[in-house]
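Residues and backbone
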Amino acid sequence: MICVPPMYVNIGAYLGEGTLIDSHALVGSCAQIGARVHVSAAAQIGGVLEPVGALPVIVEDDVLVGGNTGIYEGAVIKQRAVIAAGTILTGSTPVYDLMVPGRDDASMMDWLARLGYDVWCFDCEGYGRSDKSRPVNADIACGADDLAVVSDYIMKHNGQQPLLTYGSSSGALRAALFAQRHPERVARLALDAFVWTGEGSPTLAERKKRLPDYLASHRRPIDRTMIRSIFTRDHPGTSDLTVVEAFADAVLALDDSVPTGTYIDMSAHLPVCDPEKIKVPTLIMRGQYDGIASFQDLASFFERLPNPDKQFVVMPGIAHTSTRSKNYALVYHLLAGYFSQPQPVYKGV
């Protein structure tokens, strides 16, 4: 263990082998820090002396805690997580992402965090760790409502800076509608595996055949076969099946059903957003083999976007799920370039 002053470690705290406590770090009473953890400059890890009943912060092995990070109120940081600069976490903020043994870059969140971004992700209502108690089907509009609440929370902690926003598949539809409603909160918008009208989509044509089943219930069952089909239905061979199985494990550990709202919207209610009302810089990302949206459908959407700061990219060798594909490095490269793109000096008269 290496401790670099100025620093402070309180009574009852545990620091594992190979852990580095860097300048200005504070480790509170009874906090538990695992092995090979790097607690970076100005990080704070909360203790348990007060308030009464508080739980200790637990940071598992091989975690990077970035500069100016605050971790409080019994937060538990799982193994190999990356906590980016400026992030504030409490016990009510779960930290997780897909981890694949032997693939340190399987997590796009971690990869972006290593580039210095503060990375936020959440489960929409009805999915994963989010609430499932309301009798709703969690449609696209509901997801855009969730984004509004989440963005408000994030911007309270980042100095009201607009957000670099990425969405994939139904997440892209939610992100597009959110950007349409709240353009002041979006610095740049990346829409991956997006669909506009659905015209020319073989996948949606098949899905429409089951529309009566979706309309009959707020939720639809899922299993491993269904999850695998997302990665193989358009063009077998494009996805890394090791990652797919890890993804299925993570999903099925939390859910055996998901809301029907997005399937109903994509089968019967497209379009759910208006490109002419999306005024923010926008990147459209389409996999070469994506069966959800035709090239023509997305080209028509792209043409109607009013902001001249826009890009349309076709990703070779990729179907619907780009970040779980064998060509995921192309996706990471596109997002890194787009999110770091400088503002234009000249914008016209």
